[in-house]
Fold these 2 entries.
Entry 1:
Amino acid sequence: MRKIIDAHIHVDGYNKEEQEALWEGAEAFIGVSSDYPSCFTHLEIAKENPKLRPAFGFHPEQTPPSAKEMTAIKELSKRHADQIVAIGEVGLPYYLKKKQPSLDMTPYIETLKEFIQLAEELEKPIILHAIYEDAELACELLKDKNVNAHFHWFKGSSETLREMIRRNYFISVTPDCLYEKEIQTLIEEYPLEFMMVETDGPWRFKGPFEGKITHPSMIHSSIEKIASIKRIRISDVYKALFDNTRRFYKLKGLK
């Protein structure tokens, strides 16, 4: 079984020709959005290609959404609740904060709280950009909420990792698992039953992928690495990752 699902990709970050080259690479794509126009674009692309399963959100590594844009995203999410599979990509601005240590986190935290509430209201999972200490804060904000979480491209402390496992939260692994020791250690420690794979395209990777346009075909190398690290038969890893993603996002029409 070599069927794959790209659990986190910014399809709207590719030009039209590049998008056409994506579709044969996976059975489905979780298309995460970065702002209101991005939400709308993913919705339009999904009309043309049903392999794209949209998620609506606002990427946290930028100025927080205005009240007007937040309202627009919420209204669009509610109006198209049957067509979206999640709220995302949302979270906290780890990299922006590194550049601006005095950054006021209050509006970012309030924005994330609103998205968590929206996910709970719509009974959708949430896709989080939250790493290291931000992951710990995200877990605290999710406490007592009836929301399942997908921490994409996760990095964090052993304590946070254990708490995420305890809550049955999911992570996803990118192609950097081929050359990043930190990610390889994460793969070793995190249960396969709570794992997915992604590209985060069009973000580009190093190592064997240097200079290449990010494509879902790279996921096959990730799966080979996961199987090697976990010492599990590769066909079983393919099946587990596919089934995990299909069930987590309630992807209809996939078997």
Note: The first helix runs from residue 16 to 22.
Entry 2:
Amino acid sequence: MAERAPGVSQYGSVDPAPPQNTGTLDEWSALLMDETAPMFQRMRTVFSLRNDGSDEACLALCGAFISSSALLRHELAYVLGQMQNPTALPTLIERLSDDQEHIMVRHEAAEAMGAIGDPSVMHVLEAHLGDANPEVAESCEVALDLLQWCKSPQWEETSW
């Protein structure tokens, strides 16, 4: 395996905040939910939880969608797509389906659903292909295309 460039996560992304080097799942979860904490610190916990990778970390991220910050909610959806943990699907479906949710959160939730690669969400994505917001509709189209591609022989040949 090739060595990662400095600052590149295990997911191949350059994150907007470095993950915490120390802490526990409970500590990170509490900080993530703390609306008075600096956004930079909350973002660091997002990446710490993502890197933990467990179902518990995934659920902690899902629980943070109650945040008042659309930026944070968008980042939550993004990292849930990176984690590719089907545990996140009910929450992502809820965020995509909520017409009151910020458009960028809905768009990212759709793309995360495609990244997870579970065909059980196809009907949800199809239902939003005609969404009034082109960003959401197009993200659903991309997610559906990704789900189709995951069933193809090229998927097996791809090395992420």
Note: The chain has one domain: 25-155.
